[in-house]
Amino acid sequence: MEKTVFEPDFLICPAGGLISGRKDFTMAKYTSSQLQKSINATIEELASLIDEAQFSQEIEVYLETVAKFHHYSIHNQLLIKDTFPKASHVAGFCTWRDQFNRTVKKGERGIPILAPIRVKDQSPDEDEEPTYKVFFKVVYVFDISQTEGDEIPALDVWKSPEYKPELQKILINYAESLGLTVDYQEIGAAQGALTSENKILLNLTAGTKTLVHEIAHHLAEHFESKKPHEQRELEAEATAYAVCRHFGFEDLKSPNYLYLTGLTTDDLKASLTTISTLAQQIINQIEERIS
Question: Could you say which of 87, 119, 152 is where a domain stops?
Fold first, then answer.
């Protein structure tokens, strides 16, 4: 059976210069030691930005926004994913209307979940502590894609949508040389996924960094790894950050992504050797295809 690793969707819950859009872009040449030094400096930059992220207004607004969404039980999470696999952020009709100034689109069908109801037992002795029985009834929620109204930009603080077409082509070529296939499709809130069948799935809104992230997962053999999920995510995301910074990306949200995943600067530094090795490998392969 094919297995898929999706990036967290929070549902429940100084580098060179790639000139985008030009086929004749040029890159500054680095020796191996210079490149490693540059990558390590970028990782140090990322470490300091993770520390800053927890105090940023951007993260504060994000957490305030997410807090408005109900935290669903594991059972209801499974029901949501089974009924509406692409769901990312779900809420009831009134919550969308009152908390977010959004309305459910005409003709949309709700996603059924179970809501508990407490019913007080009838006791003949009024002095006794009341007891309750719990029953469940079906209620309906709706995914954000089923609604329209005010935008909710705070939900995207962990995404890096910057896209450089020429670099994307080179990365796809590199991925294919590794035996991977790259496919674009709607996969919910996740920006990318790597399957056990050597497929990289990219959301239609995914930026170039996401492709680097999934390639890093493959190179690090994370499917076979016994490392904790958080460490695997850290290695892939930090590698993608280092590679993309090397090629001139600016507004990367990796610090927010790693902070929201629960990772710290100490975690980052503990994996520095792995991240540096992966980043150097990917950068060298890209530059070989540029020259």
Answer: 152
The reply to whether the predicted model has a pTM over 0.70 is no
Confidence class of residue 127 from pLDDT cuts 50, 70 and 90? low
Are 169 and 272 within one domain? Answer: yes
Would strands 111-120 and 147-149 be described as parallel, antiparallel, or unpaired?
unpaired
> Which helix (H) or strand (E) covers residue 139, if one does?
strand 132-143
44 vs 269: CA distance, rounded Å: 8
Task: Report angle CA 238, 241, 243 to the nearest 5 degrees.
Answer: 110
CA distance 124 to 126: 6
DSSP result, 92-122:
EHHHHHHHH-EEEPTTPPPEEEEEEEEEEPP
Whether residues 9 and 140 share a domain: the answer is no
Mean pLDDT of 264-283: 89
The edge-to-edge listing of strands for the beta sheet with 199-202 is 4-6, 192-195, 199-202, 181-184
Domain end position, chosen among 127, 152, 177: 152
Q: Are residues 50 and 93 in the same domain?
A: no
Q: Indicate whether 31 and 125 sit together in one domain.
A: no
With beta carbons less than 8 A apart as the criterion, state whether 187 and 138 touch.
Answer: no
